[in-house]
Structure formats: C-alpha cells, structure tokens
Amino acid sequence: MAGLTLREVAKSYGDTDVITNLDLDIQDGEFVVFVGPSGCGKSTLLRMIAGLEEITGGTIAIGNKVVNDIAPAKRGVAMVFQTYALYPHMTVYKNMAFGLKQAKTPADEIDRRVKAAAETLEITPLLERTPRALSGGQRQRVAIGRAIVREPEVFLFDEPLSNLDAALRVQTRIEIARLHKRLGTTMIYVTHDQVEAMTLADKIIVLRDGNIEQVGSPIELYEKPQNMFVAQFIGSPKMNFFKAEELNDKGQSYLKGEADIIGIRPEHLKLAGKTDALITATPDLIENLGEIALVHCKTASSMEFIAKTTDLSAFPVGKEVKLTANTSVLNFFNSTSQQAV
Amino acid sequence: MSNRTLPRLLQTPAVVLLLMWMLVPLSMTLFFSFIRYVLNNLRRPEWTSPDIANWRGFGNYEYVLYQAKDFWFAVQNSLFIVGSVIFLTVVFGLAIAVLVNRTFPGRGIVRVLFISPFFVMPAVNAVLWINMILDPVLGLNGLAIEGINNTISTLQNLPGIGSFFALWPEIEPLSFRATQTSAYAVIIMVTWQWTPFAALIFMTSLQSEDQQQKEAAILDGAGVWAQFMHLTLPHLARPIAIVVMIQAIFHLSLYAEIEIVSRGNGNKNLPYLIGEFASNNIGAASATGIMAVILANIVAIFLLRIIGKSLMD
Ligand SMILES: Nc1ncnc2c1ncn2[C@@H]1O[C@H](COP(=O)(O)OP(=O)(O)OP(=O)(O)O)[C@@H](O)[C@H]1O
Ligand SMILES: [Mg+2]
Hints:
The complex is a heterodimer.
Chain A: E1 4-13, E2 16-26, E3 31-35, H1 42-50, E4 57-62, E5 65-66, E6 77-80, H2 92-102, H3 107-121, H4 136-149, E7 154-158, H5 166-183, E8 186-190, H6 194-200, E9 203-208, E10 211-216, H7 218-223, H8 228-233, E11 240-243, H9 249-254, E12 261-264, E13 270-271, E14 279-288, E15 293-299, E16 304-309, E17 321-324, E18 331-333
Parallel strand pairs in A: 3-8, 3-9, 6-7, 7-8
Antiparallel strand pairs in A: 1-2, 1-4, 4-5, 9-10, 11-12, 12-18, 13-17, 14-15, 14-17, 15-16
Helix pairs in contact in A: 2-3, 2-4, 3-4
Chain B: H1 5-33, H2 59-67, H3 71-100, H4 107-115, H5 122-133, H6 140-156, H7 162-165, H8 182-207, H9 211-219, H10 224-235, H11 237-251, H12 256-262, H13 270-278, H14 282-312
Helix pairs in contact in B: 1-14, 2-14, 3-8, 3-11, 5-8, 5-12, 8-11, 8-12, 11-14, 13-14
The site of magnesium ion (MG) has 2 residues of chain A, from helix 1.
C-alpha cells in the first residue's frame, strides 16, 4: 500500500520536452485517472512511474521511497498494457506465474496466488490455454490477473479497455471498479473515455502538452472547471462558450469584472420564460439519440452550439427560440487568460 | 469439359517436365546401381557400357557397405559436419542477431559487413581459410603461434622470472590438413560462411518482436537472460527451424571445401565418396548415391518430426 509523490518531474526526448516540471500527489488507495488529448504525455508519465522510461529531471517517490534509481520490478508496481502484452508462448497459468517465478517465490505460494486470482477473475477454466486461444476480453482478464498476483502497491493501467467492444468495456469497467474496492490498492489509469474517467476516478488529472491543467474529483471538474480547456475537455458534447455579442441584455448583465465569456453545458440549456432568456438562437439540425436529442443551434451572429434536451417539441427547426440556464450552473471565463473567473 | 480439366491440361507440360527432371536422373541412378558399370576395365570391356546384361543385383550395395572401407565413415562424417555447422551457426547467428538488433551509430554498415561472408564462393572461402588463416606455417594460425613462442623465449631469457617461463613448453601450431583435424577445418569455414545467413534470418524476425511483451517482462523482474530464454527464443522458433532445415539440405552435399582442405584424406562425406567412386566405378557411385538419398530422407523426416511442429503453428 502506498501513495505517490511526483516532484518537478520532467521528460524530454532530445530537444522535445514532453513533460516539464510536473508536481503531483496521489494518496494511498486512490483511483486516479489521467485524461488529456492524444500525445499529451499520459502514457509517458505512466511509463516513467513504472520505470520503463527514464526521467530527465525531478523525483518520483512511491510510498516514502524515491524510486528514480530503482529497477521497474522492484518498485512494487504492476502494469496492464493496452495490447495486453501477454507472453504468447506460455499458458495463462505460466503468464500469471512468471513474475512470481522471477522473484523466486516458493512454488506452492505461486500456485495459491495464481489460483486465487484466476478465481476472482473467473478465468480458472482457461489456465492451461495459451493467449492465442483466448478472446479479447479473456486476454484482458489474464493481463489484469498477471498484475494482481504480484500484489503490487500501485496498479498502472494504460488504456486497458480500448481494444474491447462496447458491451465488454462496460462490464470490465465495472469489474475494475469492484477490484479497486476489494483490494483498496492505489490505481493509476489512463483513458480517452469520458465515462471511464467519470465513473472510476476518485481523482481526475487533466493533462495538456505535459502540464497538469486541473486536478480534482470528477464532479469538481464537471461543475467547476478551472479553465476553458478543462471545461471543454470534460463532458460530452463539450461545453458551449458564449461571448457578449451572442448574449441578450440579461445575459450580458452577468458578465462582470474580468468575465467576458459564459460557459453553459448543453444539458443545462432549456427554453426560457418571459424574463430570463440569455440567448436567442435558431435550431438548424437535430440528432435524436432516443433517450435524449442533440439540438444544433445557431445564434444571430452564426455561432454554433449544442443543446441537449429530452423535449424535442420545444425546439422547432428553423424557428427562433429563447434559451436560458439556471444561474447556479453558469461558468464564467476570461477570454485572454482562458481561466475561470 | 468440366471446369477442372482445362487447368489440369494447362498444368500438364510443367508437371511432365518436372517429373522428367526428377525421374530420369533418379531412375538412371537406380538402374546403374544394380548393374556392373565401370568406365575403364581392360580385362572386362563389356562392363564399360551400361547394359542390363551386366545385372548385379544388390552386388554394388554389398560392395559399398561391406568391402569399400569408407562408407560408414562418410555417413558418420556427413552427419558430424552437418550437425556441428547447424549447431554453431544457430548459436553464433543468435548472438550476432541479438547484439546487432539494438540501435547504434553505423549499424547499417555493421550489418552489411556481417552478411558479406555469405557472398564469398565456397571454393574461394576454403582456399582463403586453409591457406591464409589455418595454415600452420604461413597462415594466421602459424604466425600467431610463432609470435607466442617468440614472446615466451624472450621471457625465458629474462633474469628472475625467466626460470618460471622456462617451465613453459613450446607451442605447436595445429595443422588442419591432418587426418584428425581436416573435418574441423571444414566445419570452421562453413560455419563462418553460413553464420551470416542464420543471423540475417534471425535479425528480420527480431524486428517483429513485441516490445510491450518485453516491457511486461521487465516489470515482472525478468533479466536480459530470462527475457531471451522466455520471449526471444520462443519467438525465434520458426526462423530457427527454417535455418536448420535449409542448412541440413545444403550441407549434406558439401564438396568444394572437403576437396580443397584435404582431398578427402581423413575427411569424406557421402558426396565426396560418390565423387571418388565415380572416377571409375559408376555402379558403386550410383549405389552410394541411392543410399545418400535415403539418408537425406531419413534426416528430413527426423527434422520434420522435431521442428515441423513449430513451422505448422
Ligand atoms: N521515443 C520517443 N521519442 C520522441 N518523442 C516521443 C517518444 N515517445 C513519445 N514521444 C512523444 O511524447 C509525447 C507524449 O507521448 P505519449 O505516448 O505519452 O502520449 P499519450 O498522451 O499517451 O497519447 P495517446 O493518448 O495517443 O496514447 C508525444 O508527443 C510523442 O510524440
Ligand atoms: Mg498513450
């Protein structure tokens, strides 16, 4: 059991800086999710923690021990790779036992741990097969099993579900959540998937270009994004930004001090009453997803935005409508600093 | 015409040609192996033409197996040379391929240099090795031993420690043309020539090795050696099988190296023995040839049994 402390961690390949001066604290037992656009350094950061990538500067501590110069296998971390990276010439059993064997664990102890992990993941009948003879989902479980048997202090997952189909992804996601609850081990998880991030995380870390944009619980990030990047990155469809010229008089009256942009999430936009309209716009396209519909609207100045609604009849295509949102869900930003006000 | 007939018909010339290509020499050899047929015999001129009247049954085989002294020696030697060359090329090939697989400056040039022995003609290879390297007087072998002996004799003349070196004997260079050692010379030169072939095939295969598996193994605490044994070697099972098969086929018919090293003295394989018989006794040569074919097939079946499995999956 251990938390992590990263101090001024940096990574560069030759001249290109991938990560610069990153500070991060992860508590013992926390489930932390790294999100960010492609190429922002999520995998690199994870691999640096694992020790697969050398760090160019700073310190990484697991528990209270600085691990900069400690071999990957001795750091007490186990990693689940996106491609699973199972050993193709070994049976499932041997795959899971391999790490313990390298650590010279007694045979009966290995056997006990592998069987227990297989039991948990419901892969006992597969133990004598080779990875070739498994489905994608089964391989995924074996990869997780291989991590579990080592009883690590920190689990690292790099987009572990991205090769699974939608149904299996949901199922495995829930299993990972259960696993975390049962083991109570620190887990660090990289994903592109909003739902995975929101549902699994105790703490989400939003990265951009190797910098941390914001750290917080999923709800904090959703309700109180610290800047426009995080505001648009968390939530789907992304948050709408309205400048003064798109707003009615009432809307403009909210812009005070530094604030010159109002951010409203699509799901918070609704038809206005007589007095509370913020925006006037014309719906021009509707995507009906069944349970909800996405209404693509245009303001008079041709700015496009999306409203999410369950009541289609309120948004007649081609007819002007007045929209509003509760004041409690409005987010205010400054367009120059891009920060929340 | 059913839709199968036309393709069959069009294939026929090729098939017939191939059959003739194979069957004609084989059946001629088979025929010669059962008759008396020599190129030159003044007392029995009728034996000098291949004729069914000279039928000898299994006489040639009996002669080769029991009277001509070199047959079993040649079989044994063939297998010894082929087996040693295969073992050494696979070991060296693996070592080189793994070493050259990492990136370093000048890797392209190093790779080309590694491959170059393969482009040397077998006869040239043999001449180079036996005269310039292995020769006990003029070759590198002789020069090196001479150098060592000179150093030792200088040391022996020194005061003090000289008495210690006086206990050292003078080193004799190994002659690789001698009866006992000429097979080693052949093994050395063929290994040198074919190691690049093995290395080349292993190198291409190493390129396709999954790096994430290695990283997973590193996290599992596997050292370099454990990674090699548990990941790289199984990954290379198929190319190793290919290298073994191809070399077994090629080296069973070694000839030039054996001829050049010792003209068959103390070191014969089946093709060389056939060559010796064929200078006069075509019947015996043919019988040996047929037995060589049988031996090659035994080797092939044996190889397919043990390594065919890794080729199949
Ligand atoms: N070996 C390398 N040499 C040079 N640059 C590299 C190397 N490995 C990664 N990078 C760069 O580092 C940056 C971060 O890469 P990384 O793989 O961590 O991104 P990521 O956030 O995991 O992206 P994705 O979501 O697409 O997986 C990228 O811009 C990438 O081009
Ligand atoms: Mg990545």
